[in-house]
Specification:
The chain is an alpha+beta fold. It folds into two domains: 4-52 and 137-251, 60s Ribosomal Protein L30, Chain: A (2-Layer Sandwich), CATH 3.30.1330; 55-131, Alpha-Beta Complex (CofE-like fold). The protein is built from six helices and twelve strands. The strands form four sheets. Strands 1-12-2-8-9 form a five-stranded mixed β-sheet. Strands 4-5-6 form a three-stranded antiparallel β-sheet. Strands 3-7 form a two-stranded antiparallel sheet. Helix 1 packs across helix 5.
């Protein structure tokens, strides 16, 4: 098996309203790649959010009393605290420098996924702007997939990823926050191992495994690689949704 992950070239800085599917097709051409059945395009959350105008100028945010209280506990700007509250179903943990929430999309993450790095908006200094996650990443992935499939005539998958920390290990890792045509989980229970043992509990988070691999190519700082092309994904593509990867509350041992 060979899995290839190729950085897509010549993707410009994204602005609200930009046609990501068109830009991806241009980048594929620039990288001498043509889509084939089973390929996957992996996109950084940031370019999807920017294209959907999920930018917020902190100067326009009026913090509530609850946000001021959260700011005092976390050391966050009260305006940022207000956005964290708006983007969250529940605040789970707070300490100086970090707020852990259940995001409105259902997964647990720090600071409601609100990004302050590599973000700029018109008419204000860079630090006045923050970027929210896409409103519906699964739908965003499906829209882009539909356009790419129509243009290419091939059946592909599209995935949107972000960088998350984990409760039990240090460091950030790429994880899926939305996808279309990509299996979130592959249930291997009932499969045989090398010695004929029947697997009892193995369910593989295939979307997150691919997200982590893609993140190695994209980088986390100034690399400027917001999209990659994947070929050789070892599982059949199928329709799925982010809900597959969200652990039910009654199975969550960290709350």
């Amino acid at each position: 098996m060979t899995l290839s992950i190729t950085a897509l070239k010549n993707i410009p800085l994204i602005k609200p309203g930009d046609d990501l599917a068109g830009m991806i097709l241009n980048a594929l051409n620039a990288s001498d790649l043509a889509l084939d059945n089973g390929d996957i395009i992996v996109l950084a959350q940031k370019i999807v959010s920017k294209s959907e105008n999920q930018l917020v100028n902190l100067a326009t945010v009026q913090p509530s009393a609850e946000a001021v209280a959260l700011s005092e506990k976390s050391g966050k700007d009260p305006r940022l605290a207000e956005l964290i509250l708006r983007e969250s179903n529940e605040i789970l943990r707070t300490r100086m420098g970090s707020v852990i929430v259940e995001h409105r999309l259902g997964f647990v993450c720090a600071n409601a996924g609100i990004d302050h790095s590599n973000v700029a908006g018109d008419g204000s200094a860079t630090e006045d702007w923050v970027l929210l996650l896409p409103n519906n990443p699964d739908q965003s992935a499906l829209d882009i997939r539909t356009k790419l499939e129509k243009a290419s005539g091939k059946q592909i998958g599209v995935m949107i990823i972000d960088s998350h920390g984990r409760a039990w290990r240090m460091g950030t890792v790429g994880v899926a926050i939305g996808y279309a045509g990509v299996p979130g989980l592959v249930d291997e229970r009932g499969w045989k191992d090398l010695f004929g043992y029947t697997l009892q509990i193995t369910v593989v988070a295939t979307a997150d495994e691919l997200a982590a691999a893609a993140s190695l190519v994209m980088g986390q700082a100034s690399e400027g690689i917001p999209a990659v092309h994947v070929r050789g994904f070892p599982y059949p593509l199928r329709n799925s949704s982010m809900s597959e990867l969200i652990r039910p509350r009654d199975q969550d041992m960290f709350r």
